[in-house]
């Protein structure tokens, strides 16, 4: 079976700085895969390479077997890959409902349509409402997005990401800055939303990672030093040395 | 040969004036991200103030005082106007300076009238310096050359040899970083804006009597200064210098070419009495900078020597 | 599931709400257009109304760029001008009256303008819309200078300084309108103004219209929901050019002449000011701006030589203190009254109003006295029988004292509001 997402010898340099130095990664269909690593390891850069925000210096990214590296973000999105951002990246002057609707439109086949009244697109409205319901923002649907509290903005970020119904979803630190209870709710939402889909997630909260992920990859200085199930990663000496050890020390 | 030498000399002088105008704008645009629409209005203000000061006293006092006054006006505008709209983003800033240009135009018309004022070259410099190919060359043009060269050296010294200059240089290429160096960014912005406006004012003082001092001079010069900044490239005074010279030479030499398009493209079958064929290079001269602007923005947004895209 | 669908349905405005918020204003506007002639406006008044209609459509088309898509253009008059020029040419073909053109009524000119504007937008927009912000603004400036210069160069297309004129009475009549007298032209303008308002409003309700707002807010995120921001901008640009061209077609019939001046930076700047002062965040803002500016342009200019200065002051004031423009004041006020909060704010509002009146007193005194002084005919500004010349102490008192007091009052009310 072709993997949902496959990275082959992916590299990225900014001038002399080599940020990603040959990453190979294969994420199977339906898998929940987490990427962990210390700050500055290149996790966000990796996401930017996959989603088309940056061009790789060399190497390949394949989505369901098709080459996507070198394509524009909107082309990649149309092929079924959607991402969220570490810093909330929403349409601040529009309402919550309009935000989600922007995420829905293309997948419903309305492209750049200028001959239809958006209010009459029944299936768009229903899909939008359905997603708002799923993420729990139904009550706040008509609020301007800029007025949402932080945790709700993070939720909206996820809602826009899943709105287009992409099969492969990339979440960049979805729980960053959230309280414990907010994190729990976010994890429940991620579990629900990623059902039957492929999920690639960057996350700092180890609790979330070990709960959620089927497999974990550890990225250190632009290289993946280990990939495996949560148990394997926990037991990996290299990982402990390079990364988890520090975390444990920090915790202690 | 004769036309060429004169075109070259005049082109260099025009280019230096353009650089004097655009160096301030480049500094402001690169550091603050504000494309100051009113920049040429400060140039006009310099010319008019110099005219008035010269009537009361002498040209030499005007040469010093007018740029200082214009610089002060600029600082007030930055402090009480621009800083206020800064939070609303670049489009609001652009709109503010657009409105300001409009206001300065109108105020100039109130104080000095709608027609050109008689701002003249000082008598001391009003003589032919030398004769070239039988034509006399006015001393004042060489004076402009000297003032511009002096300004160039002063600016270079300020930027490369003083502490403030180092900060400004850092801010040119990395505008977001300067705040974290612990410098008083608003003060730097205000000073740079003031100095930029003062330079524009200086260009007005020495350019106003070389060209004409009338209420249309800002509108005529404004867009060309933008062109220089964009063509030169963001964050690059060297680029602005090259671009100013290029455009100065381009325009002055194009004006002196009387050939029509038919003369040039006649081999393609363009008739001399067709509408396109009758267009002379000289008549196209005012269009050339804008053609350059659009082309550069489309093809090479970094400009000739810019570090970043516009 | 049924109550679920009920909750979903509650998200959208109800049919009654839609009718009240969208259909009723449009009907009211149409009724207004129909009723105006019943008041027997004078010929000059009708001409003014016609110009208002043209400016409304032009301003709305401009706001498709500035307000909805966040694109600041300094050259929008290019599209109105090209649309208008094409319409004048078509009118002349109609006057020649041979073949197809002989059957075209002059009433349809705005449609030709619409097409020409769209075409111009499609050609020029292609290189312009790659980026927003300052680069877009500068390209629009460069293009405007180029097109205006070309206008003065190609006499057969643009008629040189004299421009090209047409005759609106040629060709077949449409709906029994000869379009000779201005009150017949009124019906023509009223019809197309309504079409323009309806069209630009409908555009805001389409997926593309919504995406243009999204692109304005956050072009990067738009890319990650499957859209190319460049493509969105480009399509919006074409529509904005088309509606501007439509306004040009209206103007061609009303004024029967277009000159290269119509393509220049001056009308482009004027529409920018009108739209912004009206309020770019509201659909009706540009309409208000167009009405006020057209009125000021034709009336205030007879009344005072300083009207352009007042216009500039107003514009800078709006940019600095009222980014939502006049529409922002109108809607802010009605919202406050509707929410029943008038009781809390009326004092602060009164203080602010008093402050603004005082500031205006000083500004008007200064400007009027200065203009009379500058003209040098010894004319004296004499409001309410006062004799304000430059030697009169009262002039200086009126120029300074109310200004200081007014600024203090406005600051006080602003402070009170922030508490």
TrEMBL record, chain A:
GO terms for cellular component: plasma membrane. The keyword Nuclease does not apply. InterPro entries: AAA+_ATPase, ABC_AA/LPS_Transport, ABC_transporter-like_ATP-bd, BCA_ABC_TP_C, P-loop_NTPase. One of its GO terms (molecular function) is ATP hydrolysis activity. CDD domains: ABC_Mj1267_LivG_branched. PANTHER family: ABC TRANSPORTER ATP-BINDING PROTEIN, CONSERVED COMPONENT OF ABC TRANSPORTER FOR NATURAL AMINO ACIDS-RELATED. This is ABC transporter ATP-binding protein. The lineage of its organism: Bacteria, Pseudomonadati, Pseudomonadota, Alphaproteobacteria, Rhodobacterales.
TrEMBL record, chain B:
The keyword Transferase does not apply. GO terms for molecular function: transmembrane transporter activity. It comes from the Bacteria. Its main location: membrane. GO terms for biological process: amino acid transport. Coiled coil: none annotated. It is found in: Cell membrane. The chain crosses the membrane at residues 6-27, 34-53, 59-82, 94-112, 139-159, 187-212, 224-247, 279-299. It holds the Pfam family BPD_transp_2. It is a multi-pass membrane protein. Keywords: Amino-acid transport, Cell membrane, Membrane, Transmembrane, Transmembrane helix, Transport. GO terms for cellular component: plasma membrane. Belongs to the binding-protein-dependent transport system permease family. LivHM subfamily. This is Amino acid/amide ABC transporter membrane protein 1, HAAT family.
From TrEMBL, chain C:
One of its GO terms (molecular function) is branched-chain amino acid transmembrane transporter activity. CDD domains: TM_PBP1_LivM_like. The chain crosses the membrane at residues 23-39, 45-65, 77-94, 100-124, 136-154, 185-203, 234-253, 307-332, 353-373, 393-411. It is a multi-pass membrane protein. The keyword Transmembrane applies. It comes from the Bacteria. Its main location: membrane. Keywords: Cell membrane, Membrane, Transmembrane, Transmembrane helix. The keyword Membrane applies. This is Amino acid/amide ABC transporter membrane protein 2, HAAT family. It comes from Pseudooceanicola antarcticus.
């Amino acid at each position: 079976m072709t993997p949902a997402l496959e990275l082959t010898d992916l590299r990225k340099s900014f001038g002399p700085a080599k940020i990603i130095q040959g990453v190979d990664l294969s994420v199977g269909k339906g898998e929940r895969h987490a990427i962990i690593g210390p700050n500055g390891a290149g996790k966000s850069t990796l996401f930017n390479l996959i989603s088309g925000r940056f061009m790789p210096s060399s190497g390949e990214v394949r989505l369901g077997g098709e080459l996507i590296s070198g394509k524009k973000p909107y082309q990649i999105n149309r092929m079924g890959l959607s991402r969220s951002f570490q810093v909330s990246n929403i349409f601040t002057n529009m309402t919550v409902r309009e935000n989600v609707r922007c995420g829905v439109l293309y997948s419903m086949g309305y492209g750049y349509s200028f001959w239809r009244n958006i209010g009459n697109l029944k299936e768009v409205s229903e899909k939008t409402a359905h997603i708002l319901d799923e993420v729990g923002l139904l009550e706040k649907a008509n609020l301007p997005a800029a007025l949402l509290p932080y945790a709700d903005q993070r939720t909206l970020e996820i809602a826009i990401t899943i709105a287009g119904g992409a099969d492969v979803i990339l979440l960049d630190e979805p729980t960053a800055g959230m309280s414990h209870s907010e994190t729990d709710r976010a994890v429940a939402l991620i579990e629900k939303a990623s059902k039957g889909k492929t999920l690639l997630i960057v996350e700092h909260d180890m609790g979330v990672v070990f709960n959620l992920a089927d497999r974990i990859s550890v990225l250190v200085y632009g290289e993946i030093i280990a990939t495996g199930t949560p148990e394997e990663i926990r037991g990996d000496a290299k990982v402990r040395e390079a990364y988890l050890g520090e975390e444990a020390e920090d915790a202690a | 040969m004769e036309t060429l030498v004169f075109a070259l000399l005049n082109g260099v002088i025009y280019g230096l004036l353009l650089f004097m105008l655009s160096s301030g704008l480049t500094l402001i645009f690169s550091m603050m991200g504000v494309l100051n629409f009113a920049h040429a209005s400060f140039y006009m203000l310099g010319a008019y103030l110099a005219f008035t000061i010269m009537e009361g006293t002498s040209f030499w006092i005007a040469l010093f005082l007018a740029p200082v006054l214009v610089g002060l006006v600029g600082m007030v505008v930055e402090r009480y106007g621009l800083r206020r709209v800064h939070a609303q983003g670049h489009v609001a800033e652009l709109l503010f300076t657009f409105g300001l240009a409009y206001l300065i135009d109108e105020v100039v018309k109130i104080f000095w009238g709608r027609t050109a004022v008689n701002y003249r070259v000082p008598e001391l410099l009003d003589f032919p310096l030398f004769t070239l190919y039988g034509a006399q060359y006015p001393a004042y043009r060489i004076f402009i050359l000297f003032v511009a060269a002096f300004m160039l050296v002063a600016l270079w010294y300020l930027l490369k040899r003083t502490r403030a200059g180092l900060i400004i240089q850092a801010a040119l290429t990395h505008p977001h970083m300067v705040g974290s160096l612990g410098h008083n960014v608003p003060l730097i912005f205000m000073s740079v804006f003031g100095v930029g406006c003062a330079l524009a004012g200086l260009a007005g003082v020495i350019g106003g009597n070389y060209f004409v001092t009338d209420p249309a001079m800002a509108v005529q010069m404004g867009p060309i200064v933008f062109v220089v900044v964009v063509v030169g490239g963001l964050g690059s005074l060297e680029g602005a210098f090259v671009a100013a010279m290029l455009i100065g030479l381009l325009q002055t030499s194009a004006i002196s070419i009387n050939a029509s398009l038919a003369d040039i493209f006649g081999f393609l079958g363009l008739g001399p009495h067709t509408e396109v064929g009758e267009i002379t290079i000289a008549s196209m001269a005012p269009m050339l900078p804008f053609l350059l602007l659009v082309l550069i923005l489309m093809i090479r947004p970094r400009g000739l020597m810019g570090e970043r895209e516009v | 599931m049924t109550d679920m669908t009920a909750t979903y349905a509650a998200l959208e405005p109800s049919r009654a709400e839609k009718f009240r918020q969208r259909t009723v204003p449009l009907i009211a506007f149409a009724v207004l257009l129909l009723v105006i002639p019943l008041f027997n406006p004078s010929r000059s008044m009708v001409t003014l109304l016609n110009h208002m209609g043209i400016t409304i459509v032009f301003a709305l088309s401009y706001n498709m760029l500035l307000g909805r898509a966040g694109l600041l253009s300094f050259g929008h008059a290019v599209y109105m001008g090209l649309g208008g020029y094409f319409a004048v040419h078509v009118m002349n073909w109609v006057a020649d009256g041979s073949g197809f053109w002989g059957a075209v009524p002059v009433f349809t000119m705005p449609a030709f303008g619409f097409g020409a504007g769209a075409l111009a937008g499609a050609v020029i927009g292609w290189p312009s819309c790659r980026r927003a912000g300052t680069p877009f603004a500068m390209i629009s400036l460069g293009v405007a200078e180029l097109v205006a210069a070309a206008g003065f160069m190609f006499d057969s297309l643009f008629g040189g300084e004299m421009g090209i004129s047409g005759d609106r009475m040629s060709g077949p009549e449409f709906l029994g309108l000869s379009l000779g007298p201005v009150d017949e032209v009124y019906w023509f303008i009223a019809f197309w103004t309504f079409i323009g308002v309806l069209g630009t409003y409908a555009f805001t309700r389409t997926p593309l219209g919504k995406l243009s707002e999204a692109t304005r807010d956050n072009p990067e995120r738009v890319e990650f929901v499957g859209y190319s921001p460049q493509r969105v901008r480009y399509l919006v640009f074409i529509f904005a050019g088309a509606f501007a061209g439509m306004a040009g077609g209206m103007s061609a019939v009303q004024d029967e002449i277009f000159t290269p001046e119509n393509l220049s930076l001056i009308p482009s700047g004027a529409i920018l000011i009108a739209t912004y002062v009206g309020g770019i965040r509201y659909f009706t803002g540009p309409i208000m701006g167009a009405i006020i500016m057209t009125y000021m342009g034709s009336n205030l200019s007879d009344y005072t030589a300083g009207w352009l200065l007042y216009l500039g002051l107003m514009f800078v004031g709006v940019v600095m203190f009222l980014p939502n423009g006049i529409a922002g004041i109108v809607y802010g006020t009605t919202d406050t009254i509707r929410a029943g909060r008038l009781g809390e704010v009326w004092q602060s509002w009164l203080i602010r109003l008093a402050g603004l009146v005082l500031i205006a007193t000083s500004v008007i005194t200064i400007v009027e006295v200065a203009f009379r002084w500058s003209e040098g005919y010894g004319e004296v500004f004499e409001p309410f029988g006062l004799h304000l010349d430059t030697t009169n102490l009262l002039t200086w008192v009126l120029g300074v004292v109310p200004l200081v007091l007014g600024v203090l009052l406005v600051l006080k009310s602003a402070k009170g509001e922030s508490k």
